[in-house]
Design goal:
By secondary structure, the protein is α+β, with helices and mostly antiparallel strands. The chain folds into three domains: 63-108 and 221-373, 3-hydroxy-3-methylglutaryl-coenzyme A Reductase, Chain A, domain 2 (Alpha-Beta Complex), CATH 3.90.770.10; 111-213, Alpha-Beta Plaits, CATH 3.30.70; 377-424, Helicase, Ruva Protein, domain 3 (Orthogonal Bundle), CATH 1.10.8. It contains 18 helices and ten strands. Strands 3-8-10-9 form a four-stranded antiparallel β-sheet. A hairpin with a 6-residue loop joins strand 5 and strand 6. The protein is globular and about 85 Å long. The two termini are 42 Å apart. The structure holds 3-hydroxy-3-methylglutaryl-coenzyme A and NADPH dihydro-nicotinamide-adenine-dinucleotide phosphate (NDP). Keywords: NAD, Oxidoreductase.
């Protein structure tokens, strides 16, 4: 938890000043913050032990979203992302939501499902009965596979038997529901599946097939709600009431059309993935769970919806969030550990609510932009800086070239190259190659 996450003008100060401000409001040692970010938080030798065939490391920007308030607590939210405007957008919408008290979050217990597939079961109904009758014995066997987890208060909680497929290829699937505490839990749950698989096959008089977790973690959901006053949504050209109508219209579009729902959800995942990556979590798992959940009714749907409530806009988001604050890569990645430190080393559930808040804020910023000025104004203005760099601008010339191509409404590398030539030919001095770290 941070003293405050409302730091007006934060984006206008230098990187060093931002570090000082964040260290102060989060109570993080400056030396620790700086050391954790050095080299992206991952040395080449450590990277070589992380994955295989390593040649080096690959850096991404580590930023923070501000203004985030969840259940009356402030968070400085670490985000690792390559796309311009994502961090600004999340901070922008979180500021609007903060004006009405922030997000209200509710998180399920950290229950993951371990699947054991049973094939060639002669009498599936009888097999199901035999397995259910031995429930306690099977759960005890599952617990023995994760003794550390049981000591921490987690472990096997429930057992379900499902039958799937047509009579000619019917199979049984046994779900062992495991409380993973603060771990994401994939390895733990896979261990459980492998520990109970043979015994289940024996009870079923069948063959054991796959033994693996399910990424459709619908017992581990996060639910978020926020409400925003119309005046906080207004733009220069549009009053707040019209903006609410536009955002509700955007939500309805996503609810009715899977083509739009996919983009709507991409906007949500902009925020979520960035926090998931910053905190060293498995974003493929979170993505798989999100999209499987979005398609659960057979029709792909938006994860967040927006409605009018009198004079206010209300947003709700519900989705699975399998995320951990221990295990996985967290033990060794210094920048991921820093991310958790900045958040106040939350529980897995609290971290799930932070991810979801980053998602709902990102969604609000995007749909508000789409319902008002269009996405290009804000997004492309920030994207212009990458275009300027791609065209060869360096140092302080980056911002100047970016401003010129935004002004010209031509955010292309060609336009940026022309802007660099104009600056070269002007009286305004460009930074020297030495001070800017290269030619302008
Ligand atoms: C880009 C903004 C924020 C500008 O918005 P603005 O109104 O020009 O900003 P402002 O100068 O009035 O500042 C408002 C607040 O925004 C933040 N902010 C403002 N500028 C910065 C910055 N440079 N760096 C960091 N933070 C920034 C900051 O919090 C600031 O408050 P402060 O704390 O300063 O008082 C706005 O236009 C916006 O939110 N646009 C949405 C952009 C977006 O959604 N980008 C995601 C990429 S597009 C995409 O992938 C998804 C999409 C769109 O396809 C999804 C979908 O279709 O649903
Ligand atoms: N389909 C998928 O999504 C798959 C994902 N994965 C990967 O699995 C990894 C995540 O698995 P996960 O099981 O979380 O990671 P780990 O294998 O690292 O297991 C979690 C570890 O955290 C320890 N721990 C310490 N404190 C706690 C606590 N408070 N609560 C819970 N555990 C604690 C546990 O110790 P102890 O043993 O003493 O309990 C355990 O060793 C990710 O790297 C993911 O990419 C792997 C396979 C498939």
């Amino acid at each position: 938890m941070a003293k405050t996450s409302r730091l007006p003008g934060f984006h206008k100060v230098s990187v060093q000043q931002r570090r000082t401000l964040v260290a102060d409001v989060t109570g993080t040692e400056m030396a620790e913050l700086e050391a954790s970010l050095e080299g992206g938080g991952l040395e080449a030798e450590v990277a070589d032990k992380f994955v295989e065939n390593v040649l080096g490391t690959y850096a991404l920007p580590f930023g923070v979203a501000l203004n985030v308030r969840i259940n009356s607590k402030d968070y400085v939210v670490p985000m690792v992302v390559e796309e311009p405007s994502v961090v600004a957008a999340a901070s922008n919408a979180a500021r609007m939501i903060r004006g009405s008290g922030g997000f209200l979050a509710e998180v399920d217990p950290p229950l993951m499902v371990s699947q054991v597939q049973l094939t060639n079961v002669r009498d599936p109904r009888a097999a199901e009965e035999r397995i259910l009758a031995r429930r306690e014995e099977i759960l005890a066997l599952a617990d023995r596979a994760v003794p550390g987890l049981v000591v921490r208060g987690g472990g096997a909680r429930d057992l379900e038997v499902r039958s799937i497929g047509a009579p000619e290829d019917e199979m049984l699937v046994v779900h062992i529901v495991v409380d993973c505490q603060d771990a994401m839990g994939a390895n733990l749950v896979n261990g459980v599946a492998e520990a109970v698989g043979a015994h289940l096959a024996e009870l079923a008089h069948g063959h054991v097939g796959l033994r693996i977790l399910s990424n459709l973690c619908d017992k581990r959901k996060v639910r978020l709600r926020c409400s925003v006053a119309a005046e906080d949504l207004a733009t220069e050209d549009m009053d707040g009431q019209r903006v609410i109508d536009g955002i509700v219209n955007a939500s309805r579009f996503a609810e009715l059309d899977p083509y739009r729902a996919a983009t709507h959800n991409k906007g949500i995942m902009n925020g979520i993935d960035a926090v998931v990556i910053a905190t060293g979590n498995d974003w493929r798992a979170v993505e798989a769970g999100a999209h499987a959940y979005a398609a659960r009714s057979g029709r792909y749907a938006p994860l967040a919806i927006w409605r009018r409530d009198g004079e206010r806009l209300v947003g709700t988001l519900e989705m699975p969030m399998a995320i951990g604050t221990v295990g996985g890569t967290l033990r060794v990645h210094r920048a991921a550990r820093l991310a958790l430190l900045l958040l106040g080393v939350p529980s897995a559930g609290e971290l799930a609510s932070v991810c979801a808040a980053a998602g709902l804020a990102s969604n609000l910023a995007a749909v508000r932009a789409l319902a008002t000025d269009g996405i290009q104004r804000g997004h492309m203005a920030l994207h212009a800086r990458s275009v300027a760099i791609a065209a060869g601008a360096k140092g302080t010339a980056v911002e100047r070239v970016a401003a010129m191509i935004v002004e010209a409404r031509d955010i292309t590398v060609e336009a940026a190259k022309r802007a660099i030539e104009v600056l070269r030919g002007s009286d305004v001095p460009l930074p020297s190659e030495e001070s800017a770290g290269g030619a302008d």
